[in-house]
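Structure in, sequence out. Go:
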């Protein structure tokens, strides 16, 4: 099998684990995420609008929005980094690419913290995304300008013993699940 096939198989297995965790309906999914974000009040951050079986960061994002700018990703084009438009808990939204909602009015800014959705993660801070490379390109760009904290947010069940990673895959600094917080030593 080539790397593309290996990644596809890893994604399929991780999606199945994520769906099972999502269907189990874990309560207080964002309690640990709120705890992490409380230490960064006022720092510009970006979360995401959950789709399908993704773990829901919206309660923690709403808390953070009371203290500083919070954005959500807006896909510009294939092969391009994401832009982040300011999000408000009760703000007007429209349909964006891949079924995720985006703010009706574009109000772009550069976050210093990203809450990153994912399909799978490993114990070293490796992340398996959806395959478009959007977050890898975005994190690489933001990290070239300033320290940028990447917080993975997922169900504990999405952890994989090993992931097929490439040199372009951007690592996570923290991993938050419904069971706790893990920090990876990245020197930031």
């Amino acid at each position: 099998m080539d790397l593309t096939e290996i990644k596809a198989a890893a994604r399929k297995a991780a999606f199945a684990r994520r769906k099972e965790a999502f269907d189990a309906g874990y309560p207080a999914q964002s309690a640990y995420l709120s705890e992490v974000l409380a230490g960064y009040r006022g720092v510009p951050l970006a979360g995401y609008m959950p789709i399908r079986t993704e773990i829901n960061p919206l309660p923690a994002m709403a808390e953070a929005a009371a203290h500083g700018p919070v954005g959500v990703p807006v896909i510009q084009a294939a092969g391009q980094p994401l832009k982040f438009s300011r999000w408000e808990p009760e703000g007007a939204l429209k349909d964006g690419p891949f079924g995720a909602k985006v703010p009706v009015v574009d109000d772009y800014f550069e976050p210093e913290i990203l809450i990153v959705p994912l399909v799978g993660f490993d114990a070293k801070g490796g992340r398996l995304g959806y395959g478009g490379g959007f977050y890898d390109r975005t994190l690489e760009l933001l990290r070239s300008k300033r320290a940028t904290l990447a917080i993975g947010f997922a169900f504990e069940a999405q952890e994989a013993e090993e992931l097929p990673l490439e040199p372009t895959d951007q690592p996570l600094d923290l991993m938050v699940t419904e069971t706790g917080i893990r920090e990876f030593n990245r020197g930031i």
